[in-house]
């Protein structure tokens, strides 16, 4: 499997070099929306220096961490998931279904999005400066890295569930955009929302937990939330694999 | 009237995919809620009754209206026109006895018509919080129509670059980003320092920020005149641009069929 993945990465890299214009545009747009989020945050904090005990540095940490997770997800999975929707609708999955590989992971890791690597490196660099500034300890940094990995897996699972729904739903293209909107809505301090929304998105579908606990890390070690996020990730992964299995039974080949 | 068919077709294409239409409304509702909760918190922690002359309630209406306007001012025209040029099917439209610009305008109105109805409803509800005369309401509607045409002309001018560009999709995130920043979707432009106030008269600001403020009755008569003049000026610029681009582009175009 690792040899196959190396080949897929090589193919992705060659595609990136072939579509140089697209690569440059993806980098520019990626950075553009991150800059807009920071500008908007600076407007908020120009009127209120303190929001629920958070200062602008906390907000910057929140936005940057959310972007690190998003770019990491995009780098590893987004191209594969975009291609998967088309393959399901066009009935061209056969070429992978007959191969002696785990089809779920083959389609999840089919392509790597190299253009996302540049904004990922930029945001990781900025995040590193934030971490130095707020003086996180070594154990806090380790926990931060674990949260980023769990958060990326969470975003992957949400998107995979939305994409796999194509086996049943055709033409509902807006559905695929829902996880993106959910994560965008979660790039705010959890406490701005009413209690019921907080409970829903901190514990049931913990998108707010994903983005908020890296900031809370500055003040305390949120072990409970991290463990809960890991449990939800495992549940979502199982649900996504189950959906894939059932979806394949629904699949109609074009051959 | 032949152009009404274009309007009707575009209107049906928006509501035909009911799932997508409803999900789009759900996502815009999500965006509005996020912005409203965030700004209400900013108001609470700033200790101020109003920010840049906008009160708490008005800010809520502003955010609802500006987000609805982002739906009304659609960019889909660019991608439809690009598809016609790339496939060579523009020839079919050119051969028809219609004025393409007028037909495109009717189609543009048809596409955004369901959102215009929602916008009208919000306008009626929000007008209860502001005391405006009948003349002011009429002037607001008149300015809305002028700005609507200005934005349509802007999108039309942008769509004409399809004659030279194979892929126009990169325009979508650029326009979204411009509407978010210059259109005042992220925050009202009035909160910026006075040295940035000229931004309020760019086409995106007219379509988002200024129309939202107009709907709330937060624009003075002098500002209304400035909005009117800048909108007319932009329209003239775009009309000249459309004429020039069409003239050059049609020579670069290769059609298919008879």
Please sum up the structure shown.
The complex is a heterodimer of chains A (255) and B (258). Chain A is an all-alpha fold and 255 residues long.
Alpha carbon gap, first and last residue of chain A: 27 Å
Number of contiguous helices of chain B: 10
- Strand percentage of chain A: under 5%
Strand/helix succession of chain A: HHHHHHHHHHH
Shape of chain B: globular
Series of secondary-structure elements of chain B, N-terminal to C-terminal: HHEEHHHHHHHH
Biggest sheet details of chain A:
none
Number of helices of chain A: 11
Question: Can you characterise this structure?
Answer:
The complex is a heterodimer of chains A (255) and B (258). By secondary structure, chain A is mainly alpha-helical. Chain A has one domain (2-250). Helices cover 77% and strands 0% of the residues of chain A. Chain A has helices at residues 2-18, 20-47, 56-90, 94-97, 103-108, 117-134, 138-164, 173-185, 195-204, 207-216, 223-250. The mean pLDDT of chain A is 90. With 258 residues, chain B is mainly α. Chain B has one domain (2-252). In chain B, helix 2 (18-46) packs antiparallel against helix 3 (56-72), helix 7 (134-159) packs parallel to helix 10 and helix 9 runs antiparallel to helix 10 (221-252). Chain B is globular. The model of chain B has no long low-confidence stretch (mean pLDDT 88). Chains A and B meet through helix 2 and helix 8 of A and helix 2 and helix 8 of B.
């Amino acid at each position: 499997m690792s040899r196959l993945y190396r080949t897929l990465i090589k193919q992705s890299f060659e595609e990136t070099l072939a579509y140089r214009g697209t690569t440059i545009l993806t980098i520019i747009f990626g950075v553009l929306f991150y800059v807009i989020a920071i500008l908007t945050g600076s407007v908020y904090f120009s009127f209120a220096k303190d929001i629920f005990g958070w200062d602008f540095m906390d907000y910057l940490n929140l936005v940057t961490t959310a972007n690190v997770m998003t770019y990491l997800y995009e780098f590893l999975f987004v191209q594969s998931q975009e291609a998967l929707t088309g393959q399901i609708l066009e009935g061209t999955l056969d070429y992978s279904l007959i191969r002696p590989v785990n089809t779920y992971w083959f389609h999840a890791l089919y392509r790597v999005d190299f253009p996302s690597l540049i904004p990922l490196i930029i945001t990781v660099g900025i995040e590193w400066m934030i971490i130095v500034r707020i003086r996180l300890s070594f154990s806090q940094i380790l926990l931060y890295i674990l949260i980023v990995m769990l958060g990326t897996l969470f975003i992957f699972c949400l998107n995979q569930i939305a994409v796999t729904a194509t086996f049943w739903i055709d033409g509902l293209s807006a559905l695929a955009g829902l996880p993106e909107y959910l994560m965008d809505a979660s790039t705010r301090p959890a406490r701005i929302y009413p209690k019921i929304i907080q409970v829903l998105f901190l514990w049931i579908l913990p998108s707010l937990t994903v983005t908020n606990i890296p900031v809370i890390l500055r003040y305390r070690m949120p072990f409970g939330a991290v463990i809960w996020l890991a449990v939800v990730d495992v549940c979502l992964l199982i649900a996504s694999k189950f959906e894939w299995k059932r979806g394949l039974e629904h699949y109609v080949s074009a051959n | 009237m032949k152009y009404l068919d274009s309007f009707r077709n575009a209107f049906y294409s928006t509501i035909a995919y009911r799932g997508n239409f409803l999900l789009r409304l759900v996502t815009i509702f999500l965006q509005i809620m996020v912005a409203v909760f965030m700004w209400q918190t900013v108001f609470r922690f700033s200790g101020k009754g109003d920010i840049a002359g906008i009160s708490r309630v008005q800010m809520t209406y502003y955010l609802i209206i500006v987000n609805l306007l982002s739906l009304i001012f659609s960019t889909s025209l660019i991608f439809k026109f690009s598809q016609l040029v790339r496939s060579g099917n523009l020839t079919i439209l050119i051969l028809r006895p219609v004025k393409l610009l007028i037909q495109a305008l009717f189609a543009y109105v048809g596409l955004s018509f369901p959102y215009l109805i929602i916008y009208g409803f919000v306008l009626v509800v929000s007008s209860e919080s502001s005391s405006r005369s009948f003349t002011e309401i009429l002037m607001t509607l008149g300015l809305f129509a002028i700005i609507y045409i200005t934005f349509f002309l802007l999108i039309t001018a942008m769509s004409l670059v399809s004659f030279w560009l194979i892929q126009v999709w990169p325009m979508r995130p650029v326009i979204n980003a411009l509407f978010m920043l210059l259109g005042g979707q992220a925050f009202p432009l009035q909160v910026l320092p006075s040295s940035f106030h000229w931004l309020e008269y760019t086409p995106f600001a007219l379509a988002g920020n200024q129309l939202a403020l107009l709907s709330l009755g937060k624009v003075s008569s002098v500002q209304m005149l400035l909005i009117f003049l800048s909108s007319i000026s932009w329209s003239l610029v775009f009309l000249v641009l459309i004429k020039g681009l069409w003239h050059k582009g049609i020579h670069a175009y290769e059609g298919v069929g008879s």
